[in-house]
Amino acid sequence: MAFNIVGSNIDQFEINGRHYKIEYRAGIQNPLRNDLESIIRVFCETEIAEKLPRITFVIERNKVNDAALAWIDTKEAKGGLKVIHLDAPSLQESHAKESNTSFTRYIVKALAHEASHLIREMISREITIKDLTQKRLSEHLAKSKKVDDHSQFSVILEVTRWWLHRFINDLHTEGFAEFNTGQIATRFDYNETYQDSLYRISKRKLLEIEALRTSLFSKFEEIQNPEKYKGRESDYFADLESLGKLVTNFTLKIRHNSYGIGEYMYYLINYHSKKEIDFVKIKVFKFIKKYEEIEISKNRKPIISLNSKQGYFDYNHTLAEWAAAVKVMRNRKKK
Ligand SMILES: [Zn+2]
């Protein structure tokens, strides 16, 4: 159990035969370093960490892209490495301003989230499959005669399609990570009142996405009406620009809201049919179907549905609407 100081930049320890390593690529001073090490050890004793035989925590000088406090490198994960990166400046900032409890909670949550992705990759190659499917979809969209040439409008349609797919996937993957995090850091209550409040919050989050989606899709129709722009081409370009802004807001909203909605979906399944389902292995469509089935059995409108059109958002129905917009574009070009 004790820390073996191998070098000043690497600390290693073992818990019940599982190996952990903390590698410092950024200098971190006490008391932060001591606090961080004890929090990491607390995390390594949780149920989530237990599922991974070894983890390396790398304390980085700087974060990559728009990552938050912690992230995983998909290349490393796909190669079987269990590495979680942490951003030193964010650690320092939060350590300086938060209480001990909230600092601990902040770190444990971030670690639980990233470890969940690593577990899914290890068991069901989640990251590999997600990358592959999105790559295939992108290639398909790029090649496909469906989305025609590379005019700006066509690109907007492609982006929309890509994000619809991403939305459903994020519910499945980020929802799982958030649910695991909630299990250890938030500790859900399993009763009707708590469940109803999560439902309401998730429904509101979905309706925010759906409102943008509806405006986006009605703009698709509007902008494809040639009558509207006769002799007023500049109006067309202004509309195209506002469509671009709309699609950006739509993708940002998906990115922001899908985590919480997905978390609620796992919570609900866990509450009502925990024993039948292996959350690590469940596939995306089965996950959505299972969720939908439970809401319906409770006489409640599902927030998301796959193809029954029962939900506030129905994936297949939305894809059909998207395909219809693409068809209008093709017919218009033929003329
Ligand atoms: Zn994530």
What does this structure look like?
By secondary structure, this protein is α/β, with parallel strands linked by helices. It has two domains: 4-124, Zincin-like, CATH 3.30.2010; 131-334, no CATH class. It is 65% helix and 10% strand. It has helices spanning 32-44, 47-50, 74-78, 88-97, 100-124, 126-143, 152-186, 192-223, 233-273, 284-297, 315-334, and strands at residues 4-7, 10-15, 18-24, 54-60, 70-71, 83-87, 304-305, 313-314. The strands form two sheets. It has a six-stranded mixed beta sheet with strand order 1-2-3-4-6-5. Strands 7-8 form a two-stranded parallel sheet. The longest helix has 41 residues, at 233-273. 31% of the residues are buried. Mean pLDDT is 90; it is low at 1-7. The site of zinc ion has 4 residues, from helix 5 and helix 7. Residues 113, 117, 174, 177 line the site of zinc ion.
